[in-house]
Amino acid sequence: MASNVQGFAYVKDRYLPLEDATIPVIDWGYRRSDVTYDVVTVWKGAFFQLDAHLARFRRSMKSLRLKPRESDDEIRTCLIECVRRSQLRDAYVAVDCLRGTPAAEKLSHPANADNYIIAFARPYVSIMSEDVQKRGTHLIVASAQRIASESVDPTVKNFHWGDLTQGAFEALDAGADGCVLLDRDKNVTEGPGYNVFSVVAGKVVTPNRGALEGITRMSVIELCADERIQCEVRPLPVSEFLQSDEIFITSSAGGIMPVSRINKTILCNDRPGPVSSHLRQRYWERREQGWHATPVDYDSVESS
Amino acid sequence: MASNVQGFAYVKDRYLPLEDATIPVIDWGYRRSDVTYDVVTVWKGAFFQLDAHLARFRRSMKSLRLKPRESDDEIRTCLIECVRRSQLRDAYVAVDCLRGTPAAEKLSHPANADNYIIAFARPYVSIMSEDVQKRGTHLIVASAQRIASESVDPTVKNFHWGDLTQGAFEALDAGADGCVLLDRDKNVTEGPGYNVFSVVAGKVVTPNRGALEGITRMSVIELCADERIQCEVRPLPVSEFLQSDEIFITSSAGGIMPVSRINKTILCNDRPGPVSSHLRQRYWERREQGWHATPVDYDSVESS
């Protein structure tokens, strides 16, 4: 493909090349960030945890009172069709539900807008590059405080990234690859696009609040059970977090990614730790074996 | 104009009808709400407080490390040109600076994106309709908590409206026209698109933190000084706010708008109060007299 932007999109009943997929500048999905979204991945021709993503997306839409015309089955078809048309074997697949644009030439209530779905498939991306994943990610604890649950529910996937973007700039200034944000009680929450796990004495811990309930996070909890590794889901104070033996982060965009530095502290001789590395290896092995997989039928592409 | 969307826009060096102005679905201005904006109004052919808006917009961009190629003078020209081309005598004029789309087909750092300006002029709108302004706005105190300053700086105008949108739905459910959000210490902050003022015993109070430093708010403070009305800028606890003699809200989109009900409490016999009404009248009188005005030269429209 000659264009800079590879991929296929679905916007209001139409399939089109991703580079042509746009939204109006007056759409409240943009102008008020009044939108929810989800991201599913395709690896070696199969979706991972597609049903879990679709269920979470519907919960998010209900929470924001967003009512697109598509059913869950129709949204599933949109996502599969975007992947089919893109012919991507490894894909990053996003689906958004936007509030839409108020009908009249005046400011009106969001309850009156026509909500709609956008979806697209583009080449698979990782939050951290392969090189960084191999040497271990370098993180800092950012001074930006994660937006409180009393203001914006973090379990409803959203684009309110102002705090996370500030954290990303703090990481850049510190020469790190990424950041972790705390809540106002100094508990670990999440980073820009990823959940956070701590490992102490072979035991795994991840925060129970203030963060997205990530599908990869959920899969890690399942993986720990299968591998007989104890996993606790509870508040994680930063004081405890900074004493971790190992740290890793999880995202649909990258899977399980080990951390080798937190602030000035070097973990595991500056390399990915044994528990993190084991879980990462098992995660990709099991995905290849068809764990929670929905294979894509690439041959039945309809003409656009 | 036959179209539903009236107005003119500027997007990356091009002027075009507002209905054709779009942004890519993969732009971080949308996907991470990594954007700041400002709104100026034109009334009877003249901008109000144009310099103050341009200065605030530049401060917001600097705070988010957004560097568009346009200077302040060029942005001023964009706004004037959008109004000229639209030929609107009363206009709502928005200007956004978006982070942009990462150059490569991978997730990269926001520092690497090409930031850019979008501007548009559309017909003037008020937050509250003329009818509501006449009878007095009905407000509720929402349960949604305003996003804390430690997470997202409210003085940098932003689209993180999740809490405000939730408040708007709470207002709808309660049969009210709008809402006011509190911070976690139960101080009044702001509503969706407006600042809030309380009047007690002829004295005006507005919050000093947790809210946008609105240009109309600033103009009201100036107006109070000119009219010899005492105006305090300080924390405003909700307990004090609910005992107000009068309440009014301010926005570029509507000016000064009196409130006649707060929660179940009826203010001033269910009508706009005397101080609010006086300030509202003086505000529009002075705008007509050229207060902080920059007249638009409509005759010099260039061909597009």
Care to describe what's here?
The structure is a homodimer of 304-residue chains. With 304 residues, chain A is α+β, with helices and mostly antiparallel strands. Chain A has helices at residues 28-31, 50-63, 72-86, 130-135, 162-173, 215-226, 238-241, 274-288, and strands spanning 8-11, 14-17, 22-24, 35-43, 46-48, 91-98, 116-123, 137-145, 178-182, 195-200, 203-206, 231-233, 246-251, 255-262, 265-266, 293-295. In chain A, the strands form two sheets. In chain A, strands 8, 9, 10, 11, 12, 13, 14 and 15 form an eight-stranded mixed sheet that branches. The longest helix of chain A is centred in the N-terminal third of the chain and has 15 residues, at 72-86. The mean pLDDT of chain A is 95. The interface between A and B is large, with 62 and 63 residues.
Backbone CA Rg of chain A: 20 Å
- Ends apart, CA distance between termini of chain A: 17 Å
| Most extensive interface, chain pair and sizes | A-B, 62 and 63 residues
The overall strand count of chain A is 16
Number of helices of chain A: 8
What's the assembly state of these chains? homodimer
Report the sheet-strand fraction of chain A: 25-35%
Summarize the helix and strand pattern of chain A as letters.
EEEHEEHHEEHEHEEEHEHEEEHE
